[in-house]
Amino acid sequence: MTAPDRTPRPGAPASPSPAALVRLATSGSGRGARLALAGAGFAGHQVAEALVPVLLGLVIDRAIGRSDPGALLGLLGALAALFAALILCWRTGSRLTTGVYAYGEHDLRLLATGRALHPRGMAARRPPGEVLTIATSDASNVSGVSWLIAEQGAALAGLLTAAVSLLLISWQLAAVVLAATAVQLVVLQLLSGPLDRRVYAEQREAARAGALATDFTAGIRVLKGFGAEGAAVRRYRRASRDSMAAALRRVRSLAGLTALNSAVSGVFLAGIALLAAWHALEGRLSVGEFVAAIGLAQVVSGPMRTLGFFGASLAAKRGSARRLAELLAEPHRVTHRPQPDGLPSSDALFALRYGQVTITARPGELTGVRADGTAAEELAALASCRTAAEPGSYVLAGRDASALSPHEARRTVYAPPHDASVFTGTVAENLAADGVCTEATTASALDDVLTHLPEGLASQVGEQGRRLSGGQRQRLLLARALHQPQPVLVLHEPTTSVDSVTEDRIARALRASGRTIVLITTGPTLLGACHRVHDLTQDTATDPDATMPPRNATTPDPATTTRAAR
Predict the structure, then answer these.
(1) Which range among 154-158, 178-182, 422-426, 557-561 shows the weakest confidence by mean pLDDT?
(2) Which residues in 100-240 belong to E strands, given as ranges?
(3) CA dist., res. 231 & res. 215, Å (int)
(4) What is the pTM of this model?
(5) Element (H, E) at 358
(6) What is the arrangement of strands in the sheet containing 357-361, beginning at the earlier edge strand?
(7) N or C: which end of the chain has fewer CB within 10 A?
(8) Crossing angle (nearest 10°) for helices 229-281 and 310-328
(9) pLDDT, tens digit (0-9, with 9 covering 90-100), for 424-475
């Protein structure tokens, strides 16, 4: 895999393993120390809980049994202090762990987002819904390891405290607790393997169903236009049922482990209670020690369940970490190719060879490229560096684009996809961050749209521009392109959804704008306004100097336009 040009997050590995992602979430950016303090806080809470029945036993034996008011007051004060420490430790642990979890999740989301938006793209096309699920749900699950570490450490501290307390009362009781915990951990760990696989399968199917839902929602207008709502519903229903079946398999496995965990805990705790009662009847335990033993048996049940679920909890985190690591390890679609020795330099601002045709763009000219179907899509992808160009076939400002990173190439050329996204927010927020250019809104005919919107530039466009019609969305995207500072604009069919009168107005404005623009289109109106036209529909080489000569008039001539489009 080609190393990224920029690391999305300082200190993050280029191709992290699942274990490295867990370490990043739990200990990156100095979070390890905070997680250690959080674990100490939760451990203090569990230790204090385990000492409560011990103090109650002392109250019974040394204060109530001896009728000693001074000892009673002292022990009750100690009990109150113990509860205060218990609450303080829990608050400290909870606050610190929440911070570690939130910032760890944030770092993982930045990694996933940085990979999805990397200038070199991804070799495999992942649906947006799948990437969204990985960047949100899976990132949250992986960062949740911080809670798992803190809670497991606290459970172990509470269990050891209870075992030591029982050892001071009766070594047989302590032996039963330690044996029960060891058996429970071994058995449940052996049985958690199938759960790990089922959790991963459930997450994969859930991501697939989420990806379909996201894509169908984004393309609902197209689906309605083709009358394909029924087929889309049937496809989503199948994906949803597969996701449900995977979830049910995971839940059944988890339910089985839960039942086994509870059964093992119950059996051993009952054994502890019976053994303590037997010792009390034989006089080997005082009343206070018996009460403490029963209380410790109740307290230890919580840590035993927590430790018993370690394998099941880890399975979900591990599956999410694998999915996130797979996304981050996805190979780049555009790879870096060093410029070969002897490659002739060019002074052209934009020159792209496609097949036998070399397309050039001169400063200030509106250049047309007649292409449709696959050729138009491939040409737009090459111009935007979403697809790697062969060395020597693409020159930008005298430099071979194959020797540049996509980020460097896009400083010279702006080539948005035909179906670019409209963001949730206002019209102005979709155009530019540093002010709206009136010339751009006029050239794109967006000014007419603004007169029909209730608040003009401040009008909300809705999620993905759903409050706008197709033509309004397209004019908004064209205006956004004209706001870009790059010296070359490559526009792929920018007026397919506007009426003919508006298209003619846009064509005139683009020609008169004085900017270097390459139009990939089959529209005769746009081609007729171009200074020169390259025809990719003919299987012959086209000399740029022999293409359509510059036109002096700004009004397209229908006859010439027709000839150019043929």
Answers:
(1) 557-561
(2) none
(3) 14
(4) 0.64
(5) strand 357-361
(6) 357-361, 350-354, 394-396, 399-400
(7) C
(8) 150
(9) 899 999 998 778 889 999 999 999 999 988 898 999 998 888 888 888 999 9
Decide: 268 and 176 in contact? Cβ < 8 Å: yes
For residue 11, pLDDT over 60 is answered with no
Nearest to 120 by CA among 392, 387, 391: 387
Cα–Cα distances in Å, from 253 out to 194, 199, 247, 256, 551?
8, 10, 10, 5, 74
**CA dist 335 → 16, 108, 123 (Å):** 20, 24, 10
Q: Which helix (H) or strand (E) holds 488?
A: strand 488-492
Can you tell me the distance from the alpha carbon of 554 to that of 509, in angstroms, rounded to the nearest whole number? 9
Report d(CA 169, CA 192) in Å as an integer: 35
Report residue 75 as tokens: 């022990």
Whether residue 41 contacts residue 341, with contact meaning beta carbons closer than 8 Å, is answered with: no
Which tokens is 549 given? Answer: 């000569």
- Please give the structure tokens belonging to residue 186: 């071994």
Short-list 511, 508, 506, CA closest to 495:
506
Closest CA relative to residue 251, chosen from 206, 300, 185: 206
Sign of CA dihedral 433, 435, 437, 442: positive
484 contacts 464 by C-beta, under 8 angstroms: no
